[in-house]
Amino acid sequence: MANYRRGRINDEMQKEVALILREVKDPRVCDAFISVTAAEVTPDLKYAKIYYSAMRGDPKEVRQGLKSSAGFIRRQVAQRLNLRATPELTFVEDTSIAYGARIQSLLSSIEITPEEEEDDNA
Fold it and tell me: What would be the CATH architecture of the domain defined by 2-95?
């Protein structure tokens, strides 16, 4: 039962942080087009890792912008989610989208000649 509750908290945390990031006025954050890919809250609900990917901007600058606006984001999460204790937020860059795009480009660059197709069918 506890894992089910934590899963719901993770989902709500992800949704709310994604909405709150639209309100952040730091140019390092608002200009980077950040999407929240996942949220992972510890079992004691004291800490939360927020996984994000940024489409634009320098990754170091985006990380610094998120780190500096973590207090604002945490305060907004506390107001929007009804939790006994609001978790301390840690932002982690999620590179799985870039990794998937790289794999896709590698797969699309492979060329199969008609001779290879005939050998595979035999």
Answer: 2-Layer Sandwich (3.30)
